[in-house]
Amino acid sequence: MTFSCTESSCPQFTFDIFGQKLIYAHRFGTLLRLQRAQPACHSGWMLYSLLRPLIFRFDAESAHRLSIGALGLMPSLPCFTDKVLASRVAGLDFPNPVGLAPGYDKNAEIAAPAFGLGFGSVELGTVTPLPQAGNPKPRLFRLVEDRAVINRMGFNNDGREKVAERLSKLDLSKLPGRIGINIGANKDSVDRIADYVAAIQRLGLLADYVTVNISSPNTPGLRALQDKAALDDLLGKVVAAAPEGRPVFLKVAPDLEPADVADICQSVLEHRVAALIVSNTTITRPPLKSHHREESGGLSGAPLRDLAHQRLIDFRRASGGKIPLIGVGGIANADDAYARIRAGASLVQLYSALVYEGPSLADTINRGLARRLKRDGFSSVTDAVGVDVPL
Ligand SMILES: Cc1cc2nc3c(=O)[nH]c(=O)nc-3n(C[C@H](O)[C@H](O)[C@H](O)COP(=O)(O)O)c2cc1C
Question: What CATH code is assigned to 82-384?
Answer without folding.
Answer: 3.20.20.70
